[in-house]
């Protein structure tokens, strides 16, 4: 886990997702479809670690196929009672 000055740890999975999204790689079309277009992160239950919110992601291959309105789907992934 990465540690930053705020004292909140960052899960390794979060770092991997961040770097994968940041770096544009030359990939075959099937691999490009598996790239994450959007991902929600949240604090762990004990509020000490930033983690990936399970099931809250949009893959590049989902856009226009299983998710016709990507923005509406993304807004629907956001928590209603959290900032």
TrEMBL record:
Signal sequence, renumbered to the chain: none
GO biological process, one term: actin filament depolymerization
InterPro entries the UniProt entry points to: ADF-H/Gelsolin-like_dom_sf, ADF/Cofilin
Top-level taxon of origin: Eukaryota
Entry GO terms, CC: actin cytoskeleton
Full protein name: Actin-depolymerizing factor
Source organism per UniProt: Bos mutus
